[in-house]
Batch of 2 targets.
Target 1
Amino acid sequence: NLDFHPSGRHFLQIPGPSPVPDRILRAMSLPTIDHRGPEFGALGCELLGKLKKVFKTESPVIIYPASGTGAWEAALVNTLSLGDKVLMFETGHFAALWQKMALRLGLEPEFLGLTGAEGWRHGVQADMIEARLREDIDHQIKAVCVVHNETSTGVTSDIAAVRRAIDAAAHPALFLVDTISGLASADYRHDEWGVDVTVSGSQKGLMLPPGISFNAISDKAIVASQDSKLPKSFWAWDEIIEANRNGYWPYTPNTNLLYGLNEALDMLLEEGLDHVLARHQRWAAGVRKAVEAWGLEIQCQDPEVYSPVLTGVVMPEGVDADEVRQLIYERFDLSLGMGLGKAKGKMFRIGHLGDCNDLTLVAALGGCEAGMKLAGVVLKGSGVTAALDHFANHPLEAAK
Ligand code: PLP
């Protein structure tokens, strides 16, 4: 009985952190420079300009040396005051964590959502938001907060529809959106969709390691920040915006991650965002073909909002998804996302983002298929063959 010694590359198929391309790793390995020197200021200006293109905004994008959770907090503390009502929508585990944070900060979140079997299997219901905002005649609700790509379920909500709902109710609430796992893999448009604060992170579609996160902000959000009373210092936008004018930060920024970010932005913009998005859609379609061929259910129940970033695979009744995942990890050196919160033990998540291609995905699906068989999961057919056929028959150019 030989011990298992992994060789070759680990398959990091969780929905973030995503595999980091070698080009980015190399960029990050350069020597750290003086963050107050001229070379750094030039880098700061360059990457802040390119970053706007990825968020599709003309307004400032704030970068924090923090994980996505920090940028969530920054979005709330910069715009709101103690006791403010905020309307949030329960799409899954990450929406629930943001709501918990709002409570801890002394806000009054109201958590809308679908209940029972429908919960966590659909996107944000814009009509429910509109109906609630119409009832709020004296405008007690100060912000609407939603998650764009719910990483715990694999559902990408229609953000433009939520904007239309807020407008239809003629409500002045700020619109705050978490696209931590959506940006640069799923279509996202900060300005066009009238978002006031977009929250994002480095370790998903931007293909970087964890460690930096973002707030893209609107003029309305900047105005709100001038009246907002929640305590803030490190997260406060004003000093950062001021220092960013010359490409600097008011504190020591995460220099080597910024090298990586600059490289990632070059990669995305050289390829073209439309191409990047089509690539993820195509991968997601191939992975769904595999799940269908296995005869298993996808966590997302609404094809309109299937995520291009990840797919949640529901295990049959009586199968512990965590045991299947563990077996796959131990036998095939493949990491899959676990079921989080209410979905714990019921499903696993396959990430299709970061440094991958058709064949790495087919290999990952191979690990899933073999592992499920070993765990005794009854499969209808071969998902690997279905995905391979899909990729072979749908060249990327045709997917655009
Ligand atoms: N929101 C979403 C949608 C996420 O996927 C994550 C992390 O996976 C977070 C928030 C929290 O970000 P972090 O873990 O980087 O703090």
Note: Residues 11-19+272-399 form a domain with the Aspartate Aminotransferase, domain 1 fold (CATH 3.90.1150.10).
Target 2
Amino acid sequence: MTQVSDLLAALGVPASASQGGRMQLRSPIDGAPTGAIQPASEADMLAAIGRAKQAFEIWRDVPAPRRGELIRQFGDLLRQHKTELAQLVAIEAGKVSSEGLGEVQEMIDICDFAVGLSRQLHGLTIASERPGHRMMEQWLPLGVVGIISAFNFPVAVWAWNASLAIVCGNACIWKPSEKTPLTALATQALFEQALQGFEGAPAHLSQLLNGGAELGRALALDPRVALLSATGSTRMGRAVGPLVAARFGRCLLELGGNNAIIVAPSADLELAVRGILFGAYGTAGQRCTTTRRVIIHESIHDELLARLDRIRASLSIGNPLDPATLVGPLIDRAAFDAMQTALVNASEQGGSVSGGERALAQRYPEAWYAVPALVRMPAQTVVVKTETFAPILYALKYRHLDEAIALHNDVPQGLSSAIFTNDLREAERFMSASGSDCGIANVNIGTSGAEIGGAFGGEKETGGGRESGSDAWRNYMRRSTNTVNYSGALPLAQGVKFL
Ligand code: NAD
């Protein structure tokens, strides 16, 4: 608790913001109280949307490179406070220290990317069919951007969205997970620090409202919110997507995954073992890109599973602040219970389960640690097709690559995927139109841990959204097609004659 107060103070959060409220908070590390915040109400949200709209109307006219300068300064603050923020992420979300640091690094990286982008919000010049005419398209600021984020990337996902949205000339409202409000307060405090004294930047350019699903719903319903970027479970996406669609708003959905790795006979098994173990058990299986299925060629199936199982059983489970720990806690009891239910279902559906028990119950009776589980499945049953947000890896066997790809794609989700192979034809096939149906398809790299330079997101029940790099910035802008007539005549398009 003292540690949390010290970290929050170092990050510029006043004690009153994290104490004395009615929402009690506990660390997943040991169940110790970390604070008590006051959640915002729906009326607060409506007022915040009004303020954001006013901020947008000022910010949209600030030149984009100047908007980039604000993000550059914010990125500098993140660099200065990387250790403290990463530690807070570890305490609040239960990530091991190196992953907490990695999460803040990802924020810094996307800020750098956004700064570069602020001078590259290019449109096309298009050949006009009419003489003396010029056609072009411009990308213009969109409006208020609502950001709903999940607990497992408590700050990076916001940064992916906000840094691009702000450089693109928008104002943001952030509704973080109710499980991780402190890291959100700290990030917001750093952003406010960058904003203070920044000439031309309006107050309320980025606002934070802590609270539950009802606040996210208010963002989804409000027609003043031009884009809702929502990261979380498919269940959440099913709730917010139709609300935004019903008012013809824009939605960027980043939902659940059920990611698989195919291991082909020619694979470098050293690489495959590391890729699979980090993918399946890193972050205690609580990443949207976690490897939940491994589909192994029959010729190497038994050998590979034996190796995986041996290392799985020896992974160090413990306090994520201890540098020796590789697997930290689950976020809460509900996550542990969901894991147990999935393992029971897997057994009933013919699976053979190794691991999965509760760990460290005596040392941390108020926290929920689990031994990572490996489940040999005879077939891809219902439980295997369901995302359980816990360290469970289901193993399946294949004979022909077609069969492996069919199994791979036969799940409702479509986020990340990988093949380990040294056969060029297999690798290309996996990335081709008849290969993986996911938004991310890797070769000789696991499913987990994407770089910010590429567009991130997935198909099917993963929601279809793309964030972060490549041209994902276009989500945060509106396209305006302009035709300018510099001739003395008024020819109509397609040769139409009128008057
Ligand atoms: P969650 O769906 O329980 O909550 C996510 C956010 O949505 C929270 O802020 C929550 O308050 C809000 N929310 C929940 N129901 C809502 C509703 N009906 N209306 C409006 N807002 C609502 O998810 P979680 O447990 O925090 O995170 C884990 C899930 O998120 C997993 O399914 C994981 O795969 C997914 N995830 C996806 C990505 C991605 O980029 N695709 C990234 C991280 C997490």
Note: The first strand starts at residue 23 and ends at 26.
